[in-house]
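Each letter names a residue; structure tokens follow underneath. Both lines appear below:
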Amino acid sequence: MRNIEEFIISKVAVNILDKESNHVVFSVQEAELTEEVYGYFEKHILKLLKDEDARPASFDGERNLVRELCQEIFEDECFFVDNAGKMAQYLFKCASSDEKDSSGDFAVCLFESQEGRYLALMKLNFTEAYCHYVKEVEGKPGISVGVSKTGLPGPGQRLSKAVIVKDVKDHEAFNLLVADRDWDGVFNQAFLKCCFVRDERENTKIIAKASEQFARKVFKDNAQEAERFRSRMSSILRNEENVNIEKIAEESFDDPVIKNEFKATMINEGLQESEVVIDREWAEKKLKRKRLKVDKSIELYIDNEVYQDKDKFQIKRNGDGTIDIILKNVKNYIER
């Protein structure tokens, strides 16, 4: 699902969740897919698919209203408008007691790619937008500026609550991709009733993040060992198909206390398998560029190719826990 690059949107339905008036304004027909409307939702869906913080999940429980309504649409598209309205009503009911939730539109998009059919369920929170308005004064136009409180998020903005649902297949490990920073909030726990799962990308992200936090904690005052460990982890994530936590611990550390602390860190993050499958494509992209913060006062942004090029960049280990960072053969530099 995360690797979808091209798709075709066939249907869009929009309903208004008005918390101020405490009701839902239902649409009795599909939204007209003009070029502008199509482009707007296409960009939001693409942004959702590429969202680094979006998490894979599955519907939970034997009875799940959103799952049933989505499945009806996949089986017969004549249910699209009615079921989009039912989902809007259900989300409004779930969020009625949530003071943090604001008014907005609830959009449902049906789209298809080579991998199958999908539904995108998106909460479009209203935003304040400045606009001009014209008012006749003594028969002459007067132009002023006002605020519209029902503006929608721009196509480049991140949506606070959204999910992409794939047509259910029994053999698939998950069929949801959820974008919501409030993982324990109403959208996930009450509306979707989903449980999060780990795919290869989640595994890789967890290992990368947890190993960096481990290095910062254990090697806080030993840049030499921190650099050695980070280089090893970067090489593993970029070149290996699987990660063996036990093997990394044994080969990376001599101190048994540090070995056990590293293994405990990974177990606490949910990585208890002997072999963890990783997403090398994500790792290659994520580790393509390094950002180094040196002694809280210097920041370096370096492409990995330059980092590995001994003629341009070198880290010299001094043997006392410190390192020298050397830029070589500099032909030009600018100040910003």
Notes: The chain has ten helices and 16 strands. The chain has two domains: 8-124+158-197, 201-327.
